Amino acid sequence: MNKKTLRDVPLAGQRVVMRVDFNVPIKNGVITDDTRVQAALPSIRYVLEQGGSLVLMSHLGRPAGKGYEAEFSLKPVATHLEKLLGRPVAFAPDCLAADAAAAALRPGEVLMLENTRFYKEEEGSVKKKEGESDEAYQARKAEMKKKQEAMAKKLASYGHLFCNDAFGSAHRAHASTAVIAKFLPIRVAGFLMEKELDYLGRALEKPDRPFVAILGGAKVSDKLGVVRNLLTKVDALLIGGGMAYTFLAAQGHSIGKSLCETDQLDYARAMLEEARKRKIRLLLPVDNVAADRFDANATTQVVGMDIPDGWMALDIGPRTVELFGSEIRQAKMVVWNGPMGCFEMAPFAAGTFGVCRAVAESGAVSIIGGGDSVSAVNQSGLADKMSHISTGGGASLEFLEGKTLPGVAVLDDK
N or C: which end of the chain has fewer CB within 10 A? Predict the structure, then answer.
């Protein structure tokens, strides 16, 4: 990672505007999983220990961008952060009206801003209206871009330097993640961002070999670029989850009522051919747990690579767990993104948890890439056996695809 971090700049007496990812689940005003808050603590504590003060900004959920919505307020997160830090955390109920609160900060003090997505300018996107001319649409886009820059400039005015520690939002070119960098002279990565980029960057640039990637989840279309990019990097690619059945259908197997993206069959065939040409071991399920309906109480049976009519495959089978496990246990580096089946329902969880165990037992450098994979690893009780669990589902996918992340690109190089 060639980006400057908090360690590379003097912080005493400085007010740091830090983008964090506090997009956490909240039920009845209580945080049900504070993993993302905990992940930001090293950066927060470091700034305070060095004699700096902090203005923290984040989004939470998907509000409409039309002002305050109680269910998306960050106030409960500020209260929780106070307990974790053992010091007061001031709260600004409007992220664009915090001038006085920010200016009043003394070294060692923290201010959290309300949800940046209460303003549509944060995301800065506009949709074309039905019947709207291209000219009118482009004019609205340009106007929104100006408003987004104005919001970013306002957020920047609260501090002396910008720190991005929100890897989970780094793939977004939002006011608080990327545009803000135009208006502050120093732009550095936080320690969570540094760790994410180090692990994922190493996987793509200098992987330990054998390097095995495991991809799952529902749709091939979500991972088109990822599959294509990983086939140039890995020694073996294991595909499970709903996306596997598009690949099996592309090979001519019958897949019953299993998930299949018919518009991706040609892509799947092209990727299978690419793997053959590159001599990459691309493994698909050799057996499957099929159900007569999508239900935890469904009738199930273990079938081979062909799914009977009227049945749907909802997990990889025991022979596939063994096959995938054998490949994983030989690996020196593993990247995993996406579950092997509908693990939220007990009858279809064995495949995902079997892969979890294999990764944990492999001794490989293991990188778990966001979203459902993280939930599965946490549920398996094996999270402490993984080298790195990413906080950013969409960001880690785009990184593995080889894309430049806007929230990373704006940071100062070392």
Answer: C
pLDDT at 29: 87
Statement: residue 1 has pLDDT above 80: no
The answer to whether residues 376 and 355 touch, using CB atoms and an 8 Å cutoff, is no
Q: Is the pLDDT reported for residue 396 higher than 70? A: yes
CA 199 from centroid of its chain's CA atoms: 14
Q: Where are the beta strands (DSSP E) in 174-260?
A: 187-189, 211-215, 236-239
Which ranges in 332-392 belong to alpha helices (H)?
A: 350-362, 371-380
Residue 227 tokens read as 């599959």
Please give the Cα distance from 61 to 202 (Å, whole number): 31
pLDDT of residue 370: 66
Residue 126: band (very low, low, confident or very high) from pLDDT cuts 50, 70, 90: very high
Q: Which residues are catalytic?
A: 36, 219, 371, 394
Are the C-beta atoms of residues 355 and 325 closer than 8 Å to each other?
yes
Domains of the chain: 6-195 (3.40.50.1260), 207-400 (3.40.50.1260)
